[in-house]
Every structure is written in C-alpha cells, then in structure tokens.
Design brief:
The chain is about 45% helix and about 20% strand. It is built from 26 helices and 29 strands. Strands 1, 4, 5, 6, 7 and 8 form a 6-stranded antiparallel sheet that branches. Helix 16 packs across helix 21.
C-alpha cells in the first residue's frame, strides 16, 4: 500500500511539473512571436511613410519652383531612389490640354532630337499608336531611371489602365494608390503598386473640383516594389523568422494577395493563402496606403517554431519518474531487510535481547542516512544541471582532474573524451590566459587561496567562450592541502549582453550629445547672427557713405572679416551637430582638389611641401562642394600644424578603393556602410603623429593640442562626414605622421561643373514701401537704412502683432514684408499666416539667424517668397528684393 501510494504520488507530481514547464515554454514562444510580429509591422509602416515622403519631396520640388528641368527632376529622383531601395521609378506626367497638344509634342521633339508624340498606353515592345482626341492628356515626360522606362515616354496615363485612380487623385487633391500591378520595365513582371499625386498652379490647393482641373499642372507618379516591404535587411530587422502575407482588403473591391514572403525560402509547397495565415498562431495588422486598405498577416515560420521547442518538460518528467522509482525501490528493499532481521532476531535467545534492540536501532538509523544521502545527491545533480553549472575536482597527489558531464559540455569536449590530465585542461585555455591561470592555481596549492575569476577558453572548432570559475582547497587532518574542488559556468552570453548594452548606451549618449549641441548651436547662431547683422550692416552702410580712398575703409575691412569669421564659427557648430544645410551636386573629387591646390599651397607652412596625386576618371560623388572644401582645408591646415617648424611633406591623394568590413571596422561613422567601391581622399603628413589617447579625443568639440581658441575644425569635419553618409579613418603613431582617409559613396551619372557665383548687380533700385518686422532694434534700423539706400520707403514693427495691425490698416500701401522668424508675442510663423490671410499675394521675405533648412520647415507649400540668412550685407538684401519682386 505504501509503495503504491509513493508511486502514484510521484507520477502525479511529475505530470504536474511537466504541464507547468510545457505551458511556460509555450507562453515564452508566443511572447517572442508577438514581439517579432510587432517589429515587422512597425518596420513596414515606417517604410510606407518613407515612400509617402518620397512623393511629397518630389511634389515640393514642383511647388517651390516655376519650372523643373529634366536634369533637376532626375537628380532629385535619383537621390531619393538611392536612399529608398523600394522605389522602382518616379515619373512626371504634365497635363496637356487638347489645344496645346501639337505645340507640346513639337517642343518635346525639339528637346529630345527624336520622334515623339502622345501615345496610348502600351506593352513594352508593342508598336506605338497616337492617343485618341480628348479634352486633355497626361503623358510621361520625365522618368527616373530613364534606361528601363525610355519606351514609356509619351504614354498617356489619363486614358490608360489606371484612369480611375489618376482622376480620383486630381479631383480629391490627394495621393491615390492602385491595386497590385506588374511594374513597368521590371524583369519578369515584378509586382508593385503605383501612387499618383497631383500638382496645381496655385499657392494653396484649389477648393473645388472645377478649380483643381482648371489649375492642374500635372501628376507625379511613383512606382514601388512589394519585395522591398518584406526584405528584413532593408527594413533593419534582425532575422527572417516569420512568414508574411500582405493582402489588399479595400472595401467594395475583390480581396487580393499583394505579396507573400516565407522565411528563409522555406518549403515552396507550403499553403500561402489568407486562410492558411489566419489559422494557428498568427497576428493581423491593418495598414492604410493612400486610399487602399491593406492587411499584414504574420505567422511564425515552421523552422523557427521547431527551434523554440526544448526538452525541458520531458527531462523534468523523466527525472520525476526516476526519483519515484528510486524511492519505491528503496522502501521495498528496506521492507525485505527488516523482515529478514526480524526473522533472525526471533531465533535469538533472551540473552541477546539487548543486542537485538541495539542492532535494530542501528539499522533504522543507517536506513535513514542512506535515504537522506540518495535524496540530497539527486537534488544536487538536478540543481547543477538546471543551473548549467559544471563541477570539477583536482587531486594533488595523483595530479588528476575529474570533470562532471556538464563541465565537459561547457568546455566543448565530447562526453567521456576528457582524459583527466592537467595538460588537456591547459590546452583548452586561451593562449593569452595560460600564464595568469597557472599563477592562480599555484597560489591556491601553495597558500590555500580561494579561486574566483573569469577566463577564456577555445573550443575545438575555434570558438572563444568566457567562463567563471570558482573553487577552494580541502585539507587533511594535519592541515595539508590535498584536493581542490569547484564549479564552472559559461558566461559568454551574459558578457555579450553587457557589451551590447554598453555599446547601446554609448550610441545613445552620442546621439543625445549631438541633439544638445544642435539646440545650443541653433540658439547661438540666432542670437549671435542678430548681433552680427548690426555689425556688418553698419560697416556696409558706413562704407557706402565714405570715399573709396578714405583710410577708414581699412578698419571697415577688418570689422567685416572678423564678423564673417564669427559667422563661420556658428556654421562649424551646425556642421558638427549634423544640421548644416547641404547643396548636393555631382562632383569629380580630383577636379575639386586641382582647383583648390593654389589656395592650399599658400595656406600651409613655408617649411611644408604639398604633393597632389589625383587619379583621373573617378566616378562622380554626390556632395556639397563648399562642405568638401572645408574638410580638405581643415585636414591640410592640421597637417601643416603637425609639422611645426620642421620641414616635411603633405600628400593629397584621390582614387577608387574597394572597402570591406575590415576597412570600416576602424573608421569613424562607417559601421552602417555596405562593402563596395568608394571614392577616397587621403591627406598624409610627415609630422609628429598622435598617441592613442589623443586620437580618441581629436573629434571632441574644442579639444586641441594647440593654443586656446582652436579645436572645432575636426569636430566640424566629422559632422560634414556624417551628413554625407561617408566614413573617415585616422591612422597615426607618434613620430611617424598621420593619415586621414575619407571614403565617399559613388554616385550614378557624371560629374557637373561647379558654377561660380554671379556678382551682385549693384545698379538695381526698387520702389514702394516695405514693412520691416524684427524684435531687435539694431536689426530693424540697419535693414531699414539698407532698404532706403536702394529706393524703398520703410515702416517698422517690433513684433508680429504690431506688424499685422499696421498691415491690416493699409494693406495696399506695402510692396513687400521683411519678416523675422523668432519674436515675442507673435512669432514669424503666426504673423506670416495672418499677413497672407489679409493679402494672399503679398511677397514675404523671411530672415533668421537659424539656417534655412530649419527656418522654412513650417513654411513648405505656403507661398513664402524667399529666405535670407543673418547676418547679411546690402548687396545680399538688394539681390533678394529684386528676386522676389521680379519673380512674376
């Protein structure tokens, strides 16, 4: 009865433990799947937002320019396609009315120097047919890329397959997406979808359908790949553990599967229907894409589910059964021995009765000790196995080491393969750990020290693992150390997690530092540029009132140069924070170096020699020439300073290099760049070189080894490199010089000539009254005097509220408004809205100490006439006023 009770209780407890561990593992697997599915859905939403931003950027190009040329369209579109791999093509479909058709076709033929006419939409390779007579057409005029879509030129989309979507976009003034279609010009009919966005000839969107059709300039067309929506590498996801299905469930339309992605190219016969994705473990995420109702369905891949399964429930169940069997066997054996002893004792004489009692007591006590020993040993083995903790024992006399099976697993040795020698254990250690571990072991034997340390081992396959070892010595009755025992645990995963967290914290701190510096730089630029406006303005006005031969002209030159240097300091701070405004062009780096060579030679020390080795026929790069000149000048000046009074050589070299992961591993900002071909700029000097400590600090703001007041040059260089998505390597040793290597991505297309800036026209004069609005009295007064000097009368206001009141009193009196951005009571943004509400056609010129990119962010599509950066000179103000007043 007792044995049956023990057996039933043990089996029941084993089943309960099995069920609990099984449910725990199932819950963990579902939680991991939920996290991965949410990550996939969020990445997909972010990608769709990026695609919308691509269309809006192209729309903003047309909205902010009276005419967009083919080169401007393709340059902007090529840059967007390079940054967004999911963009298949971008096209411009101008709206051509029937009465304009002949003139439009003739003008395009003349520009292309080849036959051209508006044709029906057709399949690639099929003959062209003229589009039938209609009130209007929307032919493809500009395409990017042109190579794959050259045959699409002239194809009329307004009467083609997607007429319903393009008319809906025109009438609603919104972006409209199509159902799944094969992408034009793609291989094997790659699936994707189209997005149409109308462009109107107005400062704001026309309010009615009739006005929208009357003011329609054309339609922007974007083609996007479905394959990019499921690519984990493009979305920045860690792996491919999910099966994905994207379906179009737009109401009133048939349900349509857009794209299916099976993890790791799994079994092609696996069901890939919507019903198969909605069964079992799955998640459903609704998405909206420009009028379409999409649904993302996620289910875990079969291989991933299989990898999540573990044998813990079965192991716990087996251990429970084993312990139950051992317990019942011990009880049964004890019962048999007790019966035998009782039989023997019954045959003894009364003289041995006292001995019998003593023997019985001794046997009971021995039985209890045996059972306790069995129970404690089983518990210990179970605990060590569950904790993944290995044990070892080292006998000093025989010099033999005994390992538990878990220890062999931790050291990567096959079960039973450890021969018990210290030499084999020594071979498992990392070569750099031999001396330290031997010293620790000698100290334990000689002094009886406790062992506790982390060290590395090398598995037979070459994998390096980190272990934590702990042990202590055992002594005999005389106090002599005879054995050492301890435990070992694999902590590789824990160390990796700590290092990953440290790297994450470092990047987070770097990001926060850049954001804080960006805010600081913007505030300094605004306030400081207001002061510089007064200084430069007064100097320029004073120059205008003086004779050219006046000796005071020299002092005014010094004032302007110092003020310009202060303005450049603000720009350098913006460059370091990554907020500098770039004007991107297709450049030939070797040509840029050749043009700068004369200036560089006069900028370096007389003891230094400049040697240029520029490779011809380099691929073009997409960069801001002004910012690149700043990088080159800063690196060359630093190289000259590094040589001090000693003679030496400064070498500049350009070329094309194939960069791999090893190249980027030691570079600044290169961790996210893909291996491939890069145009490089190398600046090398034979100066004093740098130690490792100095190399680690050279890009910190205001760190310098020179006199006080320097230290922002290399910080600005790093900001410009970051803005160009490039990488920078620094190789230097004390006494062996320094080499800076800049790696720039290659761009498509050919390099452009860097056009020189045109001189200001100093003879132009204006007329009328200008409202000057600024909270700084000095800026108002200087701007007013500048405007009066070129023919305008001026009315001033110290904040936005006062400006709106004066403008509302007599709006027809004013020719233009010169408006500051940051003011008390009512800032420039609010004042601009109120002024345009009173007179929608008033020319408003915005001025600010912030850079243009930040200042006009809230004015996109609102009809802002122009922007002027503080500080400014009379010639700059004259050119801006002429540009905005003669724009129409």
């Amino acid at each position: 009865m007792v044995i049956a009770s023990i057996w039933l209780g043990g089996v029941a407890l084993s089943c309960a433990v099995f069920a609990y561990v099984w449910r725990t593992e199932e819950a963990r697997t579902r939680q991991e799947f939920e996290w991965r599915a949410h990550s996939q859905a969020q990445a997909l939403r972010d990608t769709l937002l990026d695609h919308d931003e691509v269309i809006f950027t192209m729309w903003n190009l047309y909205d902010s320019s009276e005419e967009v040329t083919a080169d401007e369209f393709r340059r902007t579109a090529a840059d967007l396609r390079a940054r967004h791999p999911g963009v298949h093509s971008l096209q411009w479909l101008p709206y051509v009315r029937q009465e304009q058709r002949a003139e439009f076709e003739a003008r395009v033929r003349e520009g292309l120097q080849k036959p051209f006419f508006i044709n029906r939409q057709h399949e690639p390779g099929s003959p062209l047919e003229p589009a039938p007579v209609s009130d209007g057409y929307a032919p493809a005029l500009y395409t990017e890329p042109i190579e794959n879509l050259r045959s699409a030129l002239g194809s009329d989309f307004l009467h083609g397959l997607h007429r319903r979507e393009i008319e809906l976009a025109i009438d609603s003034a919104k972006r409209v997406a199509t159902p799944r279609v094969p992408l034009y010009g793609s291989e094997n009919g790659e699936p994707g979808w189209l997005v149409f966005m109308p462009v109107y000839a107005a400062d704001s969107t026309p309010p009615t359908v009739e006005e929208r059709r009357a003011k329609l300039l054309g339609v922007l067309l974007g083609e996007f790949r479905f394959s990019a929506l499921m690519d984990s590498d493009l979305l920045g996801l860690p792996d491919r553990s999910l099966d994905l299905l994207l379906a179009d469930r737009t109401p009133s339309e048939p349900e349509q599967i857009l794209v299916v992605s099976v993890a790791n190219g799994a079994n092609p016969e696996m069901p890939r229907t919507i019903a198969s994705f909605e069964s079992g473990m799955h998640r459903v995420f609704p998405l909206r894409e420009n009028g379409r109702e999409w649904t993302l369905l996620c289910r875990p891949a079969a291989e991933w589910i299989a990898a999540q399964r573990c044998f813990y429930p079965y192991e716990f169940f087996a251990i429970g059964l084993l312990l139950t069997a051992l317990g019942t066997g011990s009880v049964r054996g004890a019962q048999k021995r007790t019966a035998a002893i009782e039989q023997l004792v019954s045959e003894r004489t009364a003289a041995l009765h006292a001995t019998q009692l003593a023997l019985e007591e001794d046997l009971v006590e021995r039985q209890r000790m045996i059972e306790e020993g069995i129970d404690q040993g089983a518990r210990l083995r179970l605990a060590l196995s569950a904790a993944e903790l290995g044990t070892w024992e080292w006998d000093r006399e025989s010099n033999r080491v005994t390992w538990s099976p878990e220890t062999e697993r931790i050291f990567g040795i096959a079960p039973g393969a450890f021969d018990g020698t210290y030499e084999m254990y020594h071979r498992c250690l990392h070569p750099d750990e031999h001396e330290r571990i031997d010293s620790v072991n000698r100290g334990a034997w000689d002094r009886g020290d406790e062992i506790f340390h982390e060290h590395r081992i090398v598995w037979p396959d070459g994998t390096v693992r980190w272990l934590t070892s702990r042990g202590d010595v055992l002594r005999d009755s005389s106090g002599k150390v005879t054995r050492m025992i301890g435990a070992v645990m694999d902590v590789t995963a824990q160390r990796a997690a700590v290092e990953e967290r440290a790297e994450f914290d470092r990047r987070l701190q770097e990001t926060q530092k850049l954001e804080s510096l960006g805010v600081l730089a913007g505030g300094i630029a605004h306030d400081f540029n207001n002061l510089l406006t007064g200084i430069l303005g007064n100097a320029s006005l004073a120059r205008m009132d003086l004779e050219p031969a006046s000796p005071i002209q020299t002092y005014l030159d010094q004032i302007e140069r110092v003020s310009q240097r202060a303005a450049e300091l603000c720009k350098q701070m913006l460059a370091y924070s990554g907020k500098a405004r770039f004007v991107i062009q297709q450049l030939d780096l070797s040509q840029l170096i050749a043009e700068m060579a004369p200036l560089l030679r006069v900028s370096i020390s007389k003891n230094a020699t400049l040697e240029c080795h520029n490779e011809c026929s380099l691929p073009a790069i997409s960069a801001d020439p002004t910012q690149l000149r700043q990088i080159i000048m800063n690196l060359v000046i630093n190289a000259s300073d590094a040589m001090g009074e000693n003679s030496g050589v400064i070498g500049i070299r350009t070329g094309l290099r194939n960069a791999d992961r090893a190249t980027f591993s030691g570079a600044h900002l290169g961790s996210d760049l893909a291996p491939g071909s890069y145009v490089f700029l190398e600046v090398r000097d034979t100066g004093c070189g740098m130690s490792a400590d100095i190399r680690a600090k050279i890009f910190d703001p205001f760190f310098t080894t020179k006199f006080t007041g320097r230290g922002l040059g290399l910080a600005a260089v790093l900001g410009i490199v970051r803005g160009h998505h490039a990488a920078l390597r620094v190789d230097s040793e004390p006494g062996r010089g320094t080499t800076f290597t800049l790696l720039l991505p290659c761009a498509e297309g050919v390099a452009e000539d860097i056009a020189p800036s045109e001189p200001d026209e100093e003879t132009w004069r204006g007329s009328g009254c200008v409202l000057v609005v600024d909270d700084e009295e000095t800026v108002r007064r200087i701007a007013g005097r500048m405007l009066e000097s070129i023919g305008f009368s001026v009315v001033m206001a110290e904040n936005g509220r006062e400006a709106v009141e004066k403008f509302r009193a007599a709006p027809s009196r004013f020719t233009a408004v010169l408006l500051d951005l940051t003011m008390p009571e009512m800032d420039g943004t609010e004042a601009f809205v109120e002024l345009r509400r009173i007179d929608p056609h008033m020319c408003v010129l915005l001025m600010s100490g912030f850079n243009e990119q930040e200042a006009i962010a809230n004015f996109a599509g609102r009809g802002l006439a122009g922007f002027m950066q503080k500080p400014f000179k009379p010639g700059t103000l004259r050119a801006k006023m002429r540009a905005i007043l003669e724009k129409d």
